[in-house]
Structures are given as C-alpha cells and as structure tokens.
Design a protein that fits this description.
By secondary structure, this protein is of the alpha+beta class. The chain contains 13 helices and ten strands. Among the domains are: about 45 residues, Ubiquitin-associated (UBA) domain (Helicase, Ruva Protein, domain 3); about 100 residues, Elongation factor Ts, dimerisation domain (Tetrahydropterin Synthase, Chain A, 2-Layer Sandwich). Pfam families: EF_TS.
Amino acid sequence: MQITAKMVSELRERTGAGMMDCKKALTEAGGDMDKAIEILREKGLAAAAKKAGRIAAEGLVETYISEDGKRGAVVELNCETDFVAKNADFAELAKNIAKQVAASNAATVEEILEEKFIADANLSVKEAITALIAKLGENMTLRRFERFTTENGVISDYIHGGGRIAVMVQLNGGNEAVSKEVAKELALQIAAANPLYLTREEVPQDVIEKEKEIYKQQALNEGKPEKVVEKMVEGRIQKYFKEVCLVEQLWIRDQDLTIKKLLENKSKEAGNDISIVKFARFEKGEGIEKKEDNFVEEVMKQAKM
C-alpha cells in the first residue's frame, strides 16, 4: 500500500512523533493507522514525542578525552528533573555522547543526532535518546557541544559539582609535563572565575560600547562632573577586561599573578612558550528559562473552557 503525505501527517498529529518515524511505522504496518500507532508506542516514540513540550533545564555536562589525548569534547545533555539527572543510565548516555562528539566531525547537534550511536550501532544518537526518554518518562535534549582537536598540544578537562560545570582547555607549546600541569590549573581557574573571552582582543566592539554606556550612566548617576566621567569609564573598562578575559584574570591560587604572568613563568620552566589555544565552560541549564507552572492561572484557564 502506498503511504501518502496525508497519512503521515495524520499519524503525526495523533501521536506527536516525528515525520520519518511516522512514515516508517506506516510502512511497517502496511498503512494500518492503528497498527502504526501501536508500533510507535512499542518503540517508545509516541510517548517520547508527547513529552517534547516540557522544558529540559536539568541534566549533566560531561567531558571526554581520547586515550591518545588528541581529541576531546564537552557536551550538555538536559532532562526535566534532578532525579533523572542522577540516574545511572542518563549519566552513561551523557558519557557516550561526549565520546561520540570527540570521535565525530559533525558540526551541529542535528548532525550528531543522525549519526550511528557509538554505544549501539543499531540506533542513531537520536533514537538512543528517545529510547531513554521512553524508559525514564522525561523529555531529554542534547543542547550543545564543543570539540577539541590537537596534534602536539595538550587537552585537559575538569568537572565540578557532579556535572554542574564542565571545562575543557587546550594548550600548545611547553613540554608535556609542565603543559599538563598548567592545563589542569587553567581548567580550575575557568571553572571558578568564569572568563568569557581568552584575550581583550576577542571582546566584540559592540559589547565594549555597551559596557562603556553603562559605566558612563553609572558615573553620571553618581553625580560625577562630565570632565571626569570619561576617565572613570576608561578605568572601569580596564577592570572589566581583567574580570572577563582569562589571560588578564588574577590566578585563583596566587592573587599576585595574572594568568598571563603564570603562563610566562611556566614557559620559562618548560623551555618554550606555552599558549592557550581555546577553552570552553559549560554550566548546566545556563540561559534556559525554567517553566514555572502557575496553578491558579491554570485553574482559571480550565474554568473558561
């Protein structure tokens, strides 16, 4: 029997499952709508799709570095509750996805989701997530990832708070022993001090202008005369750079040293320059607005129906 677009659309409306999943189920069912719904339910796809509207703001951030140290990844896998975030199956899924990202060349989350799952070649990554959604009864989403690759450099990671903050940093130069030591220290620094940029040159001009405008208004609100406002703004911008740029931050272990000075000292110790290539810091759920259900509003809505 020919499976039409109308049939696929109807099944999608009735189950909330994805287009391709609906088409596969209809084909398998020989066009029988009820049988197709049953197939989707058996596979956990219909149940999973119905939960897709829930906001997944809990979860884990996870890292992986390959055995040869040449590839690494940091990922964020979200779920709805802290209870599921602590589930062993969820933690294992996050670890395997981090491993998958490190091994892959995919550029986007969508591309990763379509790949064959590293822990089960019979499933795609998307299907592996869907299967766990069906098993645990919560919506889950792979939100983001960052991949690190190096030939001769060092990649280091750090996870804080049981999967609340994950950091990865990549260095070039130095020698292996010193570079690994520095990379570990920098991972701790990044977790604690939350730099937004590596150097001040990376700070976008529009961000600088916005900060200047804020500082100018602050100074005027403090009643400072116009002639000293510009000097105050410049001073506060310099302070801003020291807060948000990694190399300008004070080292958390020794407040007499900046990270730039630490790198200079360790470069002398190693016999050649150590430089930071890049870093990533993922904090679980950052930027996601958690849905706050208002019971009174919900009752009022129901009453008006």
